[in-house]
Amino acid sequence: MVANRSIRRRLAGVIYRAMARSTLKPAQAPWSPQSWRSKKALQLPSYPDQGEVDRVMAEIARLPPLVTSWEVEGLKEQIAAAAQGEYFLLQGGDCAESFAECRSETIANKLKILLQMSLVLVLGTRRRVIRVGRFAGQYAKPRSQDLETRDGETLHTYRGDLVNRLPFTREDRTPDPQRMLRGYERSALTLNFIRGLIEGGFADLHHTEYWDLGFVKHSPHAAEYRQIVAAIGESIRFMDTLGYVDADQMRRVDFFSSHEGLHLPYEQAQTRQVPHRTGWYNLAAHMPWIGLRTADPEGAHVEYFRGISNPIGVKVGPGTDRDQLLRLLDLLHPEDEPGRLTLIHRFGAQRIAHELPALVKIVKESGKTVLWCCDPMHGNTEKLSDGTKTRRFDNIRSELEQALDLHDELGGRLGGVHFELTGDDVTECIGGARGLREADLKRAYLTQVDPRLNYEQALELAMIVARHVGGDGRGDGAD
Ligand code: PEP
Ligand code: CO
User: Fold this and answer.
1) Ligand 1: distance of its center to the CA of 378 in Å?
2) Position 2 confidence tier, pLDDT thresholds 50, 70, 90
3) How far apart are CA 292 and CA 317, in angstroms?
4) Whose CA is nearest to atom 4 of ligand 1?
5) Is 8 inside any structural domain?
6) Domain of residue 258, CATH code
7) How far apart are CA 335 and CA 19, in angstroms?
8) Is any atom of ligand 1 closer than 6 Å to the C-beta of 378?
């Protein structure tokens, strides 16, 4: 069945591409990798020396790409299948990666938690899982203010390691174009390590012990996770015996990269045409996404994204209205190409029930297919009285559960989740099975921007999704 479906999907893709080439397309304004410059661009730094920005961009453009169009198209196919219920999208990683944390242990821990979560999801949802990391390029951040004042001194806000540095000194906060090159290199180092680990068998389903994290044995979820691992191990041994398993496929688990495509000069520099394909690809990441603050249909970010061929995400949430959504569908998803558009909603536990249904209905009326993905993090951020940013596990869980129910009730499906998480034992979000309290946050509060789920909280959420999707008979793509 899976094979048949996959052949049908490929065929649909081929037919789609042939039709897209041959039919008259709706008139669209001309596009180029730099056409975004004619639009209003929010959230970009002002550099002291534009000449240096241009030189850095030219250098990045000469270097080899970070990902290939083959991988990008492969991901698009999988997302198309997720929209049909055959796959489930797991997207996760740091809010903001930092150059300093480009270390083997941090990267390996992130892979481990994503692999563990996907194991839980595979068993629970009975769907295959697409793993997309918020990594290898998640270095630029949108901020609510351009400037920050402390003790009478006003400096640029920190916009992520791609732009400037966090310490509050003039030197650190001045945007430095060379950091784009450093970010590009660190993304390459991260991807190189991930590819090496996967190639070497790190993700081999026969060896889930490779993904163990030291502190797991003390986790409240240890027993449930062990059961899941044992169940999967048993099925694999059974299929091995029957000769059903393609050993190579078991060893080769795909990981894809994603980041917010915020810093347009950096994205433009890696926008390329490739032999034997039409169109342009952003080869800095497999799946870039547009953040909530830059999703204005008339703005520079939407202009840039409309011209690239990658599968893309767009954040939607409070304030996304009918006109905006219809316009985004027109501009970013004009031909309803399978796998092209993932809408990542992030309303907050208090607002989702009231606001999501309208958006789902608008997309339905448009007749277009998108993948719906829930980010239960960004609508649930709060500040404690001492100024610490946190999120309550109960709110995150509640938004996620509501999202699952709402999509069911509306006759569709939630096709994926988007989390800010780390494989480390941090204390940034309140709650979870271990009951982290406000007072615990000080112990290991390490994030540069938004609070992330720690290992246990992330695994717990995967279990909640797995129980929900698997428990109601909707894990229907899984033969
Ligand atoms: C983010 O994903 O880190 C982010 C800033 O999200 P949003 O655009 O949804 O606010
Ligand atoms: Co964030």
Assistant:
1) 6
2) very low
3) 7
4) 291
5) no
6) 3.20.20.70
7) 10
8) yes
